[in-house]
Amino acid sequence: MLRAVIFDVDGVLVDSKDAVVELYKDLLTTAGYPEPSRKEVLKHFHQPIMTALPSIIDTSDPTELSRIKNLLDAPGFRKESISKLFKFPDKLEETLEHLKRHYKIAVVTSRLRVGMEHIYTVRQIEHLFDAVVTYEDYSNPKPDPEPLFVALKRLNVKPTEAIYIGDSDTDIEAAQAAGMRSIHLSDTPHTDATAVAKEFDELIGAINSLL
């Protein structure tokens, strides 16, 4: 029995690569570092930003990382120019609303809470989610299953009653470790995914195929 559908965010609910590159550039130049290349940023695209930063700026000093995080959390830091770079699926709201009529809907993401709130300023979809799990809500990021276990607990469903939809290998590995089914939204499907969809508007069909 399926009771919940849980989504990753970046690469699933939003194409945010251009926005993430610009965010890193703004953040690091504001913090006094050289502007990172697009290639370097995208190499860490599926990692939490606070996990990626030590590699990008070559320091693990907690005081320095805390200083940079404070810049990131500051009100107004995420500029409108970055917001305009978000690209959303054409049928985003339509798909989420359809699924919400049948299942509990949640998000599990490596984004900071303020980063998730930034998305809500562009597309008002917050009301569609029964639970939102961000970087601050767990200690061990994906592929560890902990973030998914946090969502399952909040939704009050068992792993076998939920599906996780993600675009990265770590998403599928986390779902497998949690004992959940998964849908890989990708042109190059992970062999351990339960089902595959190449486009966002194929997700309802992929979910139905698992029932």
Brief descriptors of the model:
DNA polymerase, domain 1, 10 helices, alpha/beta, globular, 211 residues, Rossmann fold
What is the element layout, followed by pairings?
Elements: E1 4-7, H1 17-30, H2 38-43, H3 49-57, H4 62-73, H5 80-83, H6 92-100, E2 104-108, H7 113-122, E3 131-133, H8 146-155, E4 162-166, H9 169-178, E5 181-185, E6 195-197, H10 203-209
Parallel strand pairs: 1-2, 1-4, 2-3, 4-5, 5-6
Lateral arrangement of strands in the main beta sheet: 3-2-1-4-5-6
Number of discrete helical segments? 10
pLDDT < 50 runs, ≥5 residues: none
Principal-axes shape call = globular
Relative helix content: 40-55%
CATH 2nd-level architecture of the largest domain:
3-Layer(aba) Sandwich
Secondary-structure element string: EHHHHHHEHEHEHEEH
| Count of separate structural domains | 2
> Could you give a short account of the major beta sheet?
6 strands, parallel
**According to CATH, what is the topology of the largest domain?**
Rossmann fold
The amount of beta strand, in percent, is 5-15%
CATH superfamily of the largest domain, by name, is HAD superfamily/HAD-like
* Mean pLDDT across every amino acid position: 95
* Cα distance spanning the termini: 7 Å
